[in-house]
Amino acid sequence: MTAFVAIDFETASRAPDSACAIGVVRAVNGRVTAREVRLIRPPAPDFHFTHIHGITWDDVRDAPDFAEVWRSLRPMLRGARFLAAHWAPFDRSVLAACCRTYGLRAPAQPFVCTVRLARAQWGIHPTKLPDVCRRLGLDLNHHEALSDALACAGIVLKAQAEGWAYAEPALVLRRL
Questions:
Q1: CA-CA distances (angstroms) from residue 103 to 66, 95, 100, 169, 174?
Q2: What is the pLDDT of residue 176?
Q3: pLDDT top residue among 176 and 119
Q4: How many CA atoms within 13 Å lie on the side-chain side of 58?
Q5: Rg (CA), the chain
Q6: Which tens digits make up the pLDDT trace of 148-162?
Q7: So where are the chain's domains?
Q8: pTM above 0.85, yes or no
Q9: Are 115 and 91 in contact (CB under 8 A)?
Q10: Does domain 3-173 have CATH number 3.30.420.10?
Q11: How far apart are the C-alpha atoms of 88 and 152, rounded to whole Å?
């Protein structure tokens, strides 16, 4: 069984632990098998990116914090060989910061960056998520966490269908 998990965060502010939404998509043997989206109450009510994702403090004030959300989503990572994110340094840093803030252990899986994957596999430039999705024929409601995670999973699945295999060092970010 070959499993991976695509992940996408939306953040409230520039604070790396300000996750206000998360989309998680699990894929096994070439198909999506599970998908979850959750709103998250960040540690502070400072919202600077509502104009990007549409999420406000009022939307999340009664939502669970990251620790509670992550505990419920963590089982989706079981057996996953890697995590995938579009511009993985961002999502990896948000995940690491949120785990630190709440005293949680960060996942051990390395990240595969689908920006780097799209460039290496298909020579796509520019590689913003809407550009890659348009080129690959993937649906996208950009900056909606589940849609972004589904698109990211779709990029990996298309690359795998064309022969890409996990563990290309240039695409893998190994540490949180």
A1: 11, 12, 5, 30, 21
A2: 47
A3: 119
A4: 1
A5: 15
A6: 999 999 999 999 999
A7: 3-173
A8: yes
A9: no
A10: yes
A11: 10
Say if residues 125 and 119 touch (Cβ distance below 8 Å): yes
- Those residues whose C-beta lies under 8 Å from the C-beta of residue 14, and which sit 6 or more positions away, are 48
Strands, sheet with 172-173, edge to edge from the N-terminal-most edge strand: 31-39, 19-28, 3-11, 82-85, 111-113, 172-173
**Closest by CA position to 38, among listed 52, 17, 55, 58:** 55
Write down the pLDDT at residue 10.
Answer: 98
Report whether pLDDT(175) > 60. Answer: no
Token code pair at residue 114? 């689908």
Phi-psi bin for 65: left (phi > 0), alpha (psi -120 to 50), beta? beta
Q: Residue 166: pLDDT above 90?
A: no
Q: Taking the CB of residue 172, how many other CB atoms lie within 10 A of it? A: 16
Q: Which amino acid is at 30?
A: G
Helix (H, G, I), strand (E, B) or coil at 103: coil
Show the tokens assigned to 163: 């022969």
The residues, any chain, with a CB within 8 Å of residue 68's CB and separated by 6 or more, are none
